[in-house]
Amino acid sequence: MPVLNHDAAPPPGWPAGVTYLTRSRLSPTFERARLPLLTPSSNDSAASSKVAASSKQPQSQPFPKELIKIKKITEPSHPAFGQLGLVALKKIEPRTKVLSYLGVYHTRPHPESDYDLSVLRIRDEDSTEVDATIDIALDAAKSGNAGRFVNDYRGIGSAPNCQFVEAVDSNGWIGMEVWTLGKGVGKGEELLVSYGKGWWAGRQG
Ligand SMILES: C[S@@+](CC[C@H](N)C(=O)[O-])C[C@H]1O[C@@H](n2cnc3c(N)ncnc32)[C@H](O)[C@@H]1O
User: Fold this and answer.
1) Ligand 1 binding pocket, CB closer than 6 Å
2) pLDDT in tens, 82-116
3) Nearest residue CA, atom 10 of ligand 1?
4) pLDDT digits (tens, 9 = 90+) for 132-159
5) What CA–CA distance (Å, rounded) separates 61 from 45?
6) Interface ipTM > 0.90
7) Does the pTM of the predicted model rise above 0.95?
8) Is 59 in contact with 100 (CB distance < 8 Å)?
9) What is the DSSP letter of 129?
10) Domains and CATH numbers, the chain
11) Are the beta carbons of 177 and 132 closer than 8 angstroms?
12) CB neighbourhood size of 189 (10 A)
């Protein structure tokens, strides 16, 4: 009898055309020589000092269906009207992990993506150029989990109620998680982070 992998089923509201992940992946174009930089135990990684110690993660990251749901935004006054967001199904306590941000790690710029999170940016010591950097980012544009639906607070709330936090993911790589901030998130409230002023500045046209 076939065994169904329920972890792999996307949560309700998942959009067609986006691959649902329960673990992040490497892009086929990911420069394999950079892989040790993603592992915080790596000796020469500047990343290791940046990443907070994290409890051992399960192999896959299920959707926290008891905490949140994916919601279609139907209020015309909402700046992301017609899109999706994340809403709390019950009060989520302050400083609580809600879910991981999963996607595809890459080492090439993805300026066109609105779902791309930088996880590592360090100086390239092998380059003769003064400003040369090594950049690794996690893009959920085509493949990801519900972390990709967290909206920015601007024009929606007075302040973010969540933030992206660096952590070690289930692959042992530097990853990102969505955590509540100091006030938690009330039942029915939308989870909102700050993408940062730079994110919006890069999109002004
Ligand atoms: C990472 S996605 C967030 C999820 C997105 N709403 C969706 O349905 O896929 C980022 C995109 O969401 C929208 N967005 C998020 N926060 C916003 C805000 N405060 N105002 C306007 N648009 C926002 C923008 O279109 C942005 O490019």
Assistant:
1) 79-80, 83-85, 114-115, 148-149, 151-152, 154-156
2) 999 999 999 999 999 999 999 999 999 899 999 99
3) 114
4) 999 999 999 999 999 999 999 999 999 9
5) 25
6) yes
7) no
8) no
9) S
10) 22-199 (2.170.270.10)
11) no
12) 16
